Amino acid sequence: QVQLVESGGGLVQAGGSLRVSCAASGRTFSIYFMGWFRQAPGKEREFVASINWSSGSTYYADSVKGRFTISRDNANNMVFLQMNSLKPEDTAVYYCAGSRRYFSGRYQHTADYDYWGQGTQVTVSS
What's the pLDDT score for residue 29? Predict the structure, then answer.
């Protein structure tokens, strides 16, 4: 099993920046891909970004491309999401996810992941 714990959420003004972190523990050697998703009230959970745990290859949703950056620290089993130029529509609970399965793709669907954190709230005020 793998445990994921997010941190770093909070309240920020539009145009500001925030970095959320995800700490992985347990059988982290089984992880192949990590991702960030978000869920706003009344909406489905949506893909934000993903990263290949080994190679560092990254993928982004069009809505965050150029503003958000996903990165990882393999030595410390951490994944980060740096969010710049934040907009009110970025307000959501942000979830970290991990996948132990290998397949060709962007890992942009919730079904692609086996492990989930509890989420951290990000609120962007206008």
Answer: 86
